[in-house]
Amino acid sequence: MHTDLPSGTRIEYAVHGSPDAPALVLITGLGLQMTAWPTSFIEGLAARGFRVVSFDNRDAGLSSRATSAKRIDLRAAAFKGIMGFPVQPPYTLEDMGSDAIGLMDKLSIDRAHVLGISMGGMIGQVLAAKHRERLRSLTSIMSSSGAMRFSFHMSAATRALLSPPPRHATEAQILEHTEHIWMLIGSPGLQPPRDILRERLRQSMQRAYNPAGVARQMLAIMASGDRRPLLRTIDTPTLVIHGDRDTLVPIGAGRDTAANIRGASFREVAGMGHDLPEPLVPMLVDLVAGHCRQADGGGAERAA
């Protein structure tokens, strides 16, 4: 399904669960499509009594694409950020957050639990700070506060993200590059067999492939800078989840995020990298559902 927002942005979305249940809005990470959410994760949350809303961020999947006047050099932009020079994005994390609010309006959702992974966690942080009246709770997973020491963590995974395949790369080259990134960032020992992973990545490419959109989203992240002053204004019940095997966004970034949000709970997940591996989904569903119930005043389920 899709809807056109007043801003002119078209958002592709899906809804699972009872229409009368509390809404839980899922916000994906950099370049990810809503199809990246494990089916078991969405179904598990719906079974726990939530109306689960997932969507393609602008510039990803089947949602609207922005345009760039010229090819974006991410390495040059990262260097500018490190040196303290401003990075000029075509849109901001605040704009992407407004898309989520616009979708909630279209679906007649006054208040929702919000869960974001990686970049989606950053967008969720902005929502909790600037649209606090619309959030019931926030769950920030494998994300960051934007503090410099975490923003430019130059691991092999980061270097791979900043070095996209050539403009005229073949489908096989693109698939190989994408698989290489997933093998770098995924939870070690918890990945599906290579043939299954490659088929998932192939299906994602066939649904949509937009490397320029990934670059523009990356610019939005870089331009966001250090959000710690913003995080200190958040009073939304917040759970921060981070894996101890994350090679893209180190676990210290998760701890730092929680430390800068008043009253936030932090949960370290052993063995988890920068993904939501199937073996950990039941535990993650329990954590998220418990946090949301607790935020709503329920005492039967708790995140801790």
Structure notes:
This protein has 304 residues and is α/β, with parallel strands linked by helices. It has one domain: Alpha/Beta hydrolase fold, catalytic domain (Rossmann fold), CATH 3.40.50. Helix content is 41%, strand content 14%. It has 12 helices and 8 strands. It has helices at 39-47, 74-82, 93-106, 119-130, 148-151, 156-161, 171-185, 194-207, 211-224, 228-231, 251-259, 281-295, and strands spanning 2-4, 10-16, 23-27, 51-55, 112-117, 135-141, 238-243, 265-269. It has an 8-stranded mixed sheet, sandwiched between helices. Helix 2 (74-82) runs parallel beside helix 9. The longest helix has 15 residues, at 171-185. The radius of gyration is 18 Å and the shape is globular. 44% of the residues are buried. Mean pLDDT is 91; it is low at 299-304.
